[in-house]
Amino acid sequence: MAKLQHPGIVAVHDAGETQNGLLYYVMECIEGTTLKGTLVESGPRSAREATLIGIDLCSAVSAVHKAGLIHRDIKSQNVMRAVGGRIVLMDFGGVGDLDDVESYSSTLHGTPLYLAPEILEGRSASLAGDIYAVGVLLFNLVSGRFPYEGTSIAEIRRAHRQGHVVRLDAVRRDLPP
Fold it and tell me: Roughly how many angstroms between the first and final C-alpha of the chain, as a whole number?
């Protein structure tokens, strides 16, 4: 994580291990609210606001990928809007190294509603999975819904397999095409 130097990524100042063997990291304190909190408090965002958030978030995700890492848990709870408007990607607890995919690919990691269909089916995490999660996050920001919904991993897998997609134009008729 020390490789990650970007205004859209939470800064990590230190990392280590406690005497009890617990790993920790010390990160930047950010005043603000998560995108999930903003959605809950104020409802769906406008197309313009979601676009601006998306641009900032894609820049941060690109920096993660250029550093040879995969985030694996991009979701509205892991992105903050700091006081002043800066969009910050956080929670790198599930990050994976692109050079060592085998070390983390055997376990399902992430939030099921944000996972790409290939990951839900058991294939390895990839850069494409992070990009898919950004798309789901933006869909959620403008609609308050998810493109594929369910209350369990099995239901979400089934929605993907059967093509039961929530149509954005049916949820938000006021959005531009």
Answer: 38
